[in-house]
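Ticket #948: bound-state structure for iron/sulfur cluster.
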Amino acid sequence: MSLIQEIDYGTPASKSKRTVTVTVDGVKVAVPEGTSIMRAAMEMGTQIPKLCATDMLDAFGSCRLCLVEIEGRAGTPASCTTPVAEGMVVRTQTDRLKRLRKGVMELYISEHPLDCLTCSANGDCELQDMAGAVGLREVRYGYDGARHPNPGIDASNPYFTYEPAKCIVCSRCVRACEEVQGTFALTIAGRGFDSVVSPSMEESFLASECVSCGACVQACPTATLNEKSVIEIGTPEHSVVTTCAYCGVGCTFKAEMRGEEVVRMVPYKDGKANRGHSCVKGRFAWGYATHKDRMLKPMIRAKITDPWREVSWEEAIGYAASEFKRIQEKYGRSSVGGITSSRCTNEETFLVQKLVRAAFGNNNVDTCARVCHSPTGYGLKTAYGTSAGTQDFDSVEFSDAIMVIGANPTDGHPVFASRMKKRLREGAKLIILDPRRIDLVRTPHIEADYHLPLKPGTNVAVVTSLAHVIVTEGLVNETFVRERCDWDEFQDWAAFVSDERHSPEVVEKMSGVPAELIRGAARLYATGGNGAIYYGLGVTEHSQGSTTVMAIANLAMATGNIGREGVGVNPLRGQNNVQGSCDMGSFPHEVSGYRHVSDDATRAMFEALWGRPLDAEPGLRIPNMMDAAVDGSFKGLYIQGEDILQSDPNTQHMAAGLAAMECVVVQDLFLIETANYAHVFLPGSTFLEKNGTFTNAERRIQMVRKVMTPKNGYEDWEITELLSNALGFPMHYNHPSEIMDEIARLTPTFADVSYNKLDELGSVQWPCNEQAPDGTPIMHINGFVRGKGKFVITEYVATDEKTGPRYPLLLTTGRILSQYNVGAQTRRTANVIWHEEDLLEIHPHDAEQRGVRDGDWVNLASRAGDTTLRAQITERVAPGVVYTTFHHPNTQVNVVTTEFSDWATNCPEYKVTAVQVMPSNGPSEWQEEYEELSRQSRRIAEPLVAAE
Ligand code: SF4
Ligand code: SF4
Ligand code: SF4
Ligand code: FES
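RESOLUTION: The complex was predicted; output attached.
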């Protein structure tokens, strides 16, 4: 194994379709118009020396090392900033050029510290490489030249250091922060020899605007910006391409290794979702894999009040299987079920649902998508015929009017946000529908054209009102609608939305959004060129989540914004494999590929391959499982990689359901909160320890590759296989590729997917079958999957969750950049430095009314329960709205959220809870009791000493 070296072409690829032919060092090369001479030379294998250029950034032309001669032109222009022209003849190696380049390098080296042998970048430094490339053998000015200011090393960032003395002021870091990340945290301060890179207002990196994406570290050609892990461990010796296990963007990384130790994660330029970029989580927050809290031994206990007993794998699996069998014999076939994980691979998820359907013999399988994007599946399938987004991420580069609804991409989907911000800086317009002033409303060089700060719970009213404007002002794309959609249904819908009760002036009263903003936003989306909608959990996690998804689908059809680059309806999926877990048949009513269990032909296909009859009746959803457990008819649950106690709503009910069961099996990395109620604990494996695939929010199937041996002994799919075998339903896979082959046989949209194809193409977007052997980047190009697009009437029904004198504020929840989901992984990394605890955002007016100061403890109470956390006073939230995250178990904000859920899918209404906020002295009584219960529940009995 060796390090994967990606070619650096020096400047970005030109998008021009026209080609020009140039001659470089006597060889003809045809390249797209607009290509730099440097890149054209590199395309034919000639590497022109360079320092300030890299193909992730626009050419800058500051170092003067890349000089070339052009026939018929005077001087020696920089090859990075000079585009090719038809017939151009270029020389890259002449005596004059050699002399000039040596001179440039002499100046650089004369003022660079000479500690190469002990430098952390030794062997991985472009300055060293260029000194070699130009044949530098002496430095006439000696090595005592004026140095850059040497204020010492800034090690404030937990993951990288900044050592100004080594800086060559190439500005690659500054440009990476601007062009790739879009944060604008860096600048070059001072002049001449005093020039120095400066974060924000000459602060430390930690105190600055920096969001630790690492793009500057990756861009730096020297050790000035360097990963602490490289300083500690040394340079890597081999690398493996794999996929981030955090969010639904699905960034591709090279895991750079020394033996079995990860040295660093480097975003892969060939990664089609991230194009060489990453965020702080994927690049840096992988330390949880070796955290001391990780559980590596299986454990069992008869009662949840007993201490855990470490046992062999054989005993743990045997115990779990015998308990499930006993329960089914006593309480019936439907008394047990399973929950799949959106953090595990497609193959692992597929096996869990297979175990439930074939070994348990029922359809009691569900997934955490129940609590996030199940309305997306329902809504988009109804309108278009497919339960997934319509575009690839590249599509945003062609959007002109971007509408973001109920999503906070800079925190939730940061790498996609950077790509979107780039397009916005190029001039695309922006509409935001969100109760909070999310960062995108105003961020460096970007200002939303419209921010509609709607009251939580009024999405359907506002989106239908946008449709009202589009229809009543004659902005419908009638040609598209007549060709592509059901015309009768359109007419009914158009009459419905045209009703005066959907006018912006009426909707203003219930939503709080000024009518002129609704009108302006609707006009911009309908007439502003390619209109693209991106939405998140602020759409789905409502009692009308599915209705809002269909209202969004209506908008896109009415304006013809479907079926080409730059447009579409794009759900921003939360967890890394939430799309995949849904695709794999994790819902109780659907097998893989979203086919209903009641369909005889579909079941017959599975039954023939699996050799077991399948139940034609849909099984229980997670909330129904808990209801049945409390009622006494549901007694056993196998949970792979999901902390339902912390992530699902109505914690008390969840706890009561889990406590009422006789066998709860938790398979996870840590003793998560749900494990407090478990009888069997099976240690799980991290993404670094397994092979498989994840499917991101673009329907892109990507390889996850094992870079280290599972510390627990098994990959997660092997554990499911062991359990299934012990239950008497044999599974014998030698490798996850065989599971994918089975998925492909049974799932028409995956028919042509195989590990060979994924290795060959890097990734594919489903559908991938005979009609689309290389996958489908953009859907519904010539027609909708369901045939004619379906307009659905979207009547606004206010949620039953109402504010009143007791609970006058509305709570909405979300996540922040540095943490992920319930925080089980990110809380066990240095990321806690940015978010030690969940905070309650409250508007200054509401805080003042309650006598609450910034940082005070406050009690947050709803009719469901209460919790205590610290207040953060901010105008990001509107008066009457409060906001918090759910990353920390000691806050357990889901104690406060209610049992209300989406009418179609049961997705909980996390985004609307009527609450009161009052000053408090510290954590509530139950929080202290819960801490004690957790401590008790995590006791592990000392191993018995064998008798002499
Ligand atoms: S880590 Fe990212 S945000 Fe921070 S300075 Fe570097 S490029 Fe900018
Ligand atoms: S810190 Fe690195 S990338 Fe930034 S200017 Fe200095 S040498 Fe160049
Ligand atoms: S968390 Fe998401 S955006 Fe960040 S690196 Fe991973 S996949 Fe990319
Ligand atoms: S690489 Fe062209 S001027 Fe620096």
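RESOLUTION NOTES: The mean pLDDT is 92.
TICKET STATUS: resolved
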